[in-house]
């Protein structure tokens, strides 16, 4: 067995060591770093090179978008901006067939355009949406599964942290990636709504088109008014929060600021709305928001830092050429190759977070994308949809763990609740794969 291991190249040994460390439950970031350092030692490189590689890997201007988008989303949750938006969407679509299921889907998609982080979205809006859906006749496990899936799509809906990282790795326009992901993201939301009948076990006590129970509770001050009055009042109350994606995306596409600068704009905007408009900002909430965002950002950036070592070994040992040749040699049919790539991403996504998957797989896949003449923007949207599924699939579907924490349900029950939603996501993945114009229509390609 050790003879076989020794016969492998340093890069291949690194991959095996990486998965061994994961199996031993070593955190992902340290598994990346330790396996890469082992490979560097095996190849005879001095370990003093590691510090330079780590510094180079994280000193990219585009990566500044990650902590600031996370902070913006955290602030909006802490300052009550999320509550106001949910209340507006409850009034707007809560009376449609499906009630709070429709509200949950719409809010998850909208919040994805604010937060950009799946786990953060589950934590911010999950408790309110799941409680409302349960009161409206949905199984609690399905409600948790719907929120997990909708929040997972936050890496598809722009501005997406995943798309920022993909753009950095692939050296592709982040603005084009954002634009290309809009229609696929909305389509995924529509497919999620088609699953609502399977999750609802009983009618709301007051019926779909009347006033569902969740709309007549004390947390909705407009519940007893006429619909137009309730809608207008809740719209005015939530207007500045609803304006957030307009400010972010409008500024990017109008050329006022770059996607990286947009993250800082979103953070300042959230602070201004909380301090001046809603007057909910205080020192305690600011500290809690910054603390939570710093912890979340540190996890992501630590993975990015050690992934730069991993990626350097992949390049130096020519793993890209080796494994690309293996994949291209499997078939002359580009659809078969695409299917194999998507299956690999789906399987790896079950065990690792999206950031790690991109850093270890894209250096292998992107050369094939260029060789086969695929558009890297379209491929980026495909990758994001694929990795969003990984956020809701065991054993390392991080959204499931966050949902379990906020609902008290077991991981197994929530995973069963997501099954029908995973099916909808797979249909969306197939549609974007076979009809690239779905993602390319807004950028005119």
TrEMBL record:
The chain crosses the membrane at residues 15-41, 53-76, 88-107, 142-166, 178-199, 239-256, 262-281, 293-315, 335-365, 377-402, 414-435. Keywords: Cell inner membrane, Cell membrane, Membrane, Transmembrane, Transmembrane helix, Transport. InterPro entries: DctM, TRAP_DctM. Residues 16-438 form the TRAP C4-dicarboxylate transport system permease DctM subunit domain. It is a multi-pass membrane protein. Pfam families: DctM. This is TRAP transporter large permease protein. It comes from Halomonas dongshanensis. The lineage of its organism: Bacteria, Pseudomonadati, Pseudomonadota, Gammaproteobacteria, Oceanospirillales.
């Amino acid at each position: 067995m050790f003879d076989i291991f020794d016969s492998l190249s340093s890069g291949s040994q690194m991959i095996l060591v990486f998965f061994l460390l994961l199996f031993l439950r070593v955190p992902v970031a340290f598994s990346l770093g330790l396996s890469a350092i082992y490979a560097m030692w095996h190849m005879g490189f001095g370990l003093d090179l590691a510090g330079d590689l780590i510094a180079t890997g994280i000193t990219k201007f585009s990566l500044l978008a990650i902590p600031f988008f996370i902070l913006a989303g955290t602030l909006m949750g802490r300052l009550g901006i999320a509550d106001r938006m949910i209340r507006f969407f409850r009034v707007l679509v809560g009376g449609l067939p499906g009630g709070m299921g429709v509200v949950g889907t719409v809010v998850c998609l909208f919040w994805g355009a604010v937060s950009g982080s799946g786990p953060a979205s589950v934590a911010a809006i999950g408790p309110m949406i799941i409680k409302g859906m349960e009161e409206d006749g949905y199984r609690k496990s399905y409600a948790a599964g719907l929120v997990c899936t909708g929040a997972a799509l936050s890496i598809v809906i722009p501005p997406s942290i995943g798309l920022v990282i993909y753009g950095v790795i692939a050296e592709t326009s982040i603005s084009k990636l954002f634009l290309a992901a809009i229609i696929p993201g909305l389509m995924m939301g529509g497919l999620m709504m088609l699953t609502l009948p399977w999750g609802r076990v009983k009618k709301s006590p007051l019926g779909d088109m009347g006033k569902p129970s969740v709309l007549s509770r004390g947390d909705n001050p407009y519940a007893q008014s006429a619909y137009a009055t309730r809608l207008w009042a809740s719209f005015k109350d939530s207007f500045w929060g609803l304006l957030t994606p307009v400010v972010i995306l409008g500024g990017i596409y109008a050329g006022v600021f770059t996607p990286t600068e947009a993250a800082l704009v979103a953070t300042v905007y959230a602070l201004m709305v909380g301090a001046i408009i809603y007057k909910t900002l205080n020192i305690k909430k600011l500290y809690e928001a910054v603390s939570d965002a710093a912890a979340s950002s540190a996890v992501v950036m630590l993975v990015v830092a050690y992934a730069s070592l991993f990626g350097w070994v992949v390049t130096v040992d020519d793993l890209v050429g080796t494994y690309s040749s293996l994949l291209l040699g499997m078939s002359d049919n580009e659809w078969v190759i695409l299917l194999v790539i998507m299956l690999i991403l789906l399987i790896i996504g079950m065990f690792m977070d999206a950031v790690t998957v991109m850093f270890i797989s894209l250096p292998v896949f992107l050369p094939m994308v260029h060789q086969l003449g695929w558009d890297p923007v379209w491929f980026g949207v495909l990758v994001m949809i694929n990795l969003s599924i990984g956020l809701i699939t065991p054993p390392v579907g991080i959204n499931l763990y966050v949902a379990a924490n906020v609902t008290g349900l077991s991981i197994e029950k929530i995973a069963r609740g997501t099954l029908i939603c995973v099916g909808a996501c797979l249909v969306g993945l197939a549609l974007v794969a076979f009809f690239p114009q779905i993602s390319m229509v807004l950028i005119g390609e």
